[in-house]
Amino acid sequence: MVKISVLQHAPSVHLPARPGDPTPTSRNLDPLMHPFSRARERNRALNAAKMDRLFAKPFVGALEGHIDAVEVLCKKPGSLSAVASGSWDGGVILHNVSERKHIRRIQGAHKGKVSGLCFAQDDRLLSCSVDSKIKLWDASPQDDITEQRPLNEYPGKSPFNSIDHHRSDPLFATASNIVQIWDETKSAAISNLTFPTSTETITSVRFNLSETSVLGSIGSDRTFTLYDIRTGKAERRVVMQMSSNALAWSPTFPTNVLLASEDHNLYTFDVRQLKTPTHIYKGHVAAVMSCDWSPTGLEFVSGGWDRTVRIWKEGHGTGPEVYHTKRMQRVSSSLFTADARFVLTGSDDGNIRIWKAKASEKLGIITARERAAIEYRDTLKDRWKHDNEVGRIQRNRHLPKPVYQAAKLKRTMLDARAVKEERRRKHTRAGESKPNAERKKVVIVEQT
Question: Residue 69: its pLDDT value, please?
């Protein structure tokens, strides 16, 4: 009998393991067998980039209730859905973002605009205003959401511009013409923090998230100042070219601070080295009014006077994600939710808008196969981002005509300034006029 050698395969290897599973396929991975694989992969990357832009619908919804411009937003630590907002009409509203309902509504909380909000411990909320008063409210859900009696009231001597609570202790800091530290159990400030030669109005104050006794402030005289409540004095101060409108400490790098400036840019500083910013973020065409870090520390959001919201990647100074609507006016406050999936913005038209942090992300239940396909497409886009066509589609953003024209004009002005500086340098004696790096122009002087 002749023996015949045959290849034998177990049928179970070529059949689905469970009903409904895809049929397993065997592939020869030798690149010589697939001469068109690279062309196919580029085509898939191109289609993935196009689909990403096609499904980019970032606007989710709006939270209503205010009858004037929304000045300030703050999220509740340890909660995914609780957000408080304060308005120019003096009202404070606590929102449940996931259900888009009001938890509490305090009409006429202050006489004048609410300039600062922060959550205290045990479901309580602190608010301050230009009426020179700080009020402590109960923020727990109740049947009567319009109950309007504060738990406590702290009178001040001058209008307050900002407020922030200590991470663990019953202390909070306020910004007016000086920085003051308050104890929740006392009716007057327990300490005043000021720089010896300072006469400015403090516009914002924030406690460091890790080194909780350190706080930073920005002032109307273009300064950024660091204080330590243990020593009770200002430690360091830098004077910048233009004043800042907002500051935010990084949640993952305790020494990093983000400043939103009047000169249309955002700056990140390492507080150990304040002479130069670590990064400059350019994109806005008007003053940047607000900024907030994502809880991951990899992204941050900014809102500007140019009526746009921009989401930046940390370390990438250009090419942010740009959100805008026809009816949205100047953005005065912006906030990342605690799960880093959504962004909230408050604007002059009285609305709080909810946006997706990733514009083309699908909301709702995603199956395992769908998740694998999304991750594959993301990998393809990242691998082919340097391809001309794929990169162009990924970078392209449609802007409102006024913003586009303003950006064009700004580019022309900056180019003209660069040409002027170069000509001036060429016509001076060799070595007298050296080009100055952009980062070295930001800080004028550092004081200790």
Answer: 94
